[in-house]
Write a structure and sequence with these properties.
With 257 residues, the chain is an alpha/beta fold. It has 13 helices and eight strands. Helix 2 crosses helix 13, helix 4 runs parallel beside helix 13 and helix 5 crosses helix 13.
Length: 257
């Protein structure tokens, strides 16, 4: 399914796991990232260079179903009824995108994959100390995991040199979009030893527990955005509006070329 010119595959977690040995760059577009890519054509081109894009966000599943209607006015008519229905009934909306793959959850899957293959892992980005704390969490969770290093260095040559010197085979980059995607795009050809690199946004904060995930029942309902809004109303209000209101409305009126 295309979103503002970006093709995002409808894949399941198991299907993606089978592809990991044959991909190098993974991004996880969510509604906010897609809105940014709609405005920033350079960012859109960088996203298109990824080997794999994971559908990260319930809004993608909702919109992918509504966009099957050929008329934009028909899409608009069904938008709000579908938004309400989606909260309680997910199955009718899984035809195009069968599964939402959140970056923070799939990051754990990639760590398990790396441990199984004996690959060394580097954690890059986030606030000072968070990358190191993330590495420590995974070392306890995955005792056989080889940690090549961790750093909160800003995106640039110093970060590139540090990762290169570590000879890490798997790299998680947590600068947030679009910084992490631009850094990965500029760096990947210079990281010859890296087999897989993934942009993970704010995942380190979830892994360490610095930011609490929504209760499981809210995640199942697709209401994690409401949980984040309750925790940080001032910080999250604009982002929540973009993801839950602006993205669906713009999408239903956008005709893909």
């Amino acid at each position: 399914m295309k979103f503002f010119g970006l093709e995002i595959p409808g894949v399941t977690r198991d299907q993606v796991l089978k592809k990991l040995d044959s991909v190098r760059v993974i991004y996880t577009p969510n509604p906010e990232i897609l809105l940014e890519a709609r405005k920033d054509k350079k960012f859109l081109r960088v996203l298109k260079k990824a080997d794999l894009l994971l559908p990260d966000g319930n809004g993608l599943q909702l919109v992918s179903t509504i966009k099957r209607f050929p008329s934009k006015w028909l899409r608009a008519f069904f938008l709000f009824p579908c938004m309400f229905t989606y909260i309680f009934f997910k199955k009718p909306f899984k035809m195009v995108i069968p599964e939402i793959i959140h970056g923070s959850d799939f990051m754990k899957t990639v760590v398990d994959w790396a441990e199984l293959r004996g690959y060394s892992v580097f954690f890059l980005g986030a606030a000072p100390g968070v990358a190191q704390k993330t590495a420590e969490v995974f070392q306890k969770r995955n005792p056989q995991l080889k940690v090549a290093g961790s750093s909160h260095l800003n995106p640039g040559k110093d970060a590139l040199n540090l990762v290169k010197e570590s000879k890490a085979q798997v790299v998680f980059v947590a600068y947030g979009a679009p910084k992490q995607e631009f850094w990965i795009h500029d760096s990947i050809q210079k990281l010859k030893q890296t087999k897989l690199i993934m942009g993970v946004g704010g995942s380190f904060d979830f892994i360490t527990g610095d930011v609490k995930r929504a209760p499981r029942f809210m995640r199942r309902l697709g209401l994690e955005w409401l949980w984040r809004l309750m925790l940080e109303p001032k910080k999250r209000a604009g982002r929540i509006y973009n993801a839950t209101i602006k993205f669906p409305i713009i999408s239903v009126f956008y005709d893909e070329k």
